[in-house]
Amino acid sequence: IVRGYARIVTDPYNFRPDLGKDDILIVPFMDIGWTPLFSRAAAIVTDVGAPFSHAAIVARELGIPAVVGCGNATMNLHSGDRVRVNGGQGTVEVLDPVSAIRGNRLP
Predict the structure, then answer these.
(1) CA distance 71 to 27
(2) Which of 45, 60, 67, 98 has a Cα at 20 to 30 A from 38?
């Protein structure tokens, strides 16, 4: 179980360079182009994926919690939301929405 701040990234080549170890990487899908971002995140959440998808396999190899195949995480979460990711149970929970944390500003 990991707690951190959601970071929505839709393009692996166009992301905020301050992605940090406490950030939860929220992406539409993963392929090999996303791999360099894995080691910079506390956990991975994808809209598309399955237990044997690229995201799930690489996350397991690196020991990073992952929830794959959420369907709509990039639409329902916002960068800056404080979230809890439980890779074992496959759950993503918003602890504090970004508007409650920083008045709609990224932390």
Answers:
(1) 10
(2) 98
Residue 30: per-residue pLDDT: 84
**pLDDT for residue 107 is more than 70:** no
pLDDT for residue 104: 46
What's the one-letter identity of residue 15?
Answer: F
Catalytic residue (choose from 37, 43, 54, 74): 54
- What is the C-alpha separation between 33 and 101, in angstroms, rounded? 32
Predicted TM-score of the model (pTM): 0.85
For every residue of the chain, which 3-state class applies, written as one string? CEEEEEEECCCCCCCCCCCCCCEEEEECCCCHHHHHHHCCCCEEEECCCCCCCHHHHHHHHHCCCEECCCCCHHHHCCCCCEEEEECCCCEEEEEECHHHHHCCCCC
Whether residue 74 has pLDDT greater than 80: yes
